[in-house]
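User: I'm curious what two different proteins look like when written out as structure tokens. Can you demonstrate?

Assistant: Sure. I'll show them one after the other, since each token string lines up with its own sequence. Here's the first protein:
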Amino acid sequence: MKLSSPSPQDAGFSLVELMTVIGIMILLAGILIASLPGIQTRVNRNQVEAFIAEIESGLSKYQIDHGIYPQNPGGGGDRDTAGIEGASVLYKHLSGDWDENGTADIQENEDSDEKVYVAKLSYKENENSKNPRSDVIGGEFMVIDTYGNPIRYLAEPPNIKPEERTTINPTYDLWSIVDADPGVEEDQAKHITNWQSN
């Protein structure tokens, strides 16, 4: 039996089909590549939202045990600066690293009565992590978001008059600036917060 070779017309048709398939694949690859930055941004934001929810849960447990939320040290400054200082307050009170040596005190001393309110928050647990939850910034241990920025936290004593309060919530404010500029008012709509943004 003799096999016949394809006619030039059949070969041309196959080439057109092949070029069409390649063209469609290039178009789909272009669409996928164009959407990747948006997908990564959404993934990062979802991670920050989940982490803030975890911190809120830890703060609730802390408040049940101590009767009050961790308080920011007094000293004034603008809201963002006070919020950044609050990142070290969160670290100290929620990681269980009261002596601030990078390791939760309960891991060093089984008799310690300190509690870990947010798991895997101590510096040593995050030192070599791909997505750390804490870091040393300006010589202080701080809770950080997926973008590497300090998670802002602001809490004031409960007996402050509402008109003197700098927090938006009556309990505490917790927010991440994500990839926005904290000094630009229009960028504040991008922040992930525990209050309703306007």
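Here's a second, unrelated protein for contrast:
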Amino acid sequence: MGVGLGTRWRAWRRARRARRSFAAPRGFRAERFGGIVQTETPRALVFVDRAYARRLGHDGGALWDGPEPAEADGNVISAHHLSAPLEAHLQLTNRCDAGCTGCYTGATPQGGPAEWGRDEWLRAVDALAERGVLHLALGGGESAVLPWLGDIVRHARARGLVPNLTTSGLTHVDELCELAPLFGQINVSLDGVGEIYARVRGFDGFARVDAAVQRLRASTPHVGVNTVVTRVNYDHLEEVFRYCRTRGLGEIELLRFKPSGRGAGVFAELTCSDAQHRGILPLALRLARRYRRRVRMDCSYTPMVAHHKPGARLMQWLAIYGCAGGDLLIGAKAHGKVSACSFAAPPAAGPDVVGLGDYWDKPEAFGAFRSWRDAAEPCSSCEVHDLCRGGCRVVSAHVSGSLAAPDPECPRVIDWRAAHPAEAAAAISTRRRLPVLAH
């Protein structure tokens, strides 16, 4: 899930012009508060209340038997988890030859043990479709190496799911170009231009990625880039925006560096500084305006957005939500086990993705990812906590030893700890005596 910034007024005007398309949406899923409408023009998931859903001709059935949830600061989805995730991130394989320094899955040329194959993932797509999932984010490793990737993509389309793809762009580009029109979006991993790419990734692959971008862009207009922001490439992000304008790429997704996979071993070295984190939002907005590109920021950047005090209402209108793991999205590892997000480890007693339906509604499902309301200071008194949800739990677990701890890279958390050193020290000491919370 990402945070769209910079061009919302244009999207709003397009939405007004697209009223006829909206009146005949592509899909609908009922929720306690009303439902989620999937539109083609503009491409969006729109949350509507029960009255509007009824005007569109929908009935929520048993989900609407009780009273309609009251809004909490305008945020109807904070009171309960959704009936199903909006999106499932499927790590189809952990095979990849690239060997990137900070790979969040720790991918290898051999892949991981007990990886699922074509038939298991086809059953997973069926299970997710029956549950009401709307989007699939397919990745790896490098899923382009799988000879049956096309089977998964076509089956997802047949079941009404929109498949999206993240790829390194380093291999099997011919096959991806053939499949490109089937994807809602293809994002190529690009952490820098030229020599900066090599400094971040640990090898010189930019020329190959650039060639892949041009070929994919000739096959579909829906090509963008994913850029993992580190202290190495932060000062070179303008080069990425300039590159995207040159190649006609409309979308740039900025991802915060996570301590997952090989990334855990180099996290202290590559994670952005506090000053860089505080500056990422104005930098992204400035570059989006200058180069007229759509920029998105992943959910873990919500504390850095909230630092600039846009206000809860504006954050909700911009669809800015914090940790969405175990609610708006889930992950699934290459062996099929469900996780709260792509970067988190699977729950100790969790199911595989085919068995998600039985697990999803359990009160203890996803542990700290679902119990974010039970927050410590300074999150508990933060006016945007219902939207931020405490920041990135994977970073919290790595740095603080607890998935439930406030995000240690959040500017507000840093400032609060500086102003309340005794309380902060006591909280950190308590967490160090406890094991990392299971989820």
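A detail about the second structure: The radius of gyration is 21 Å.
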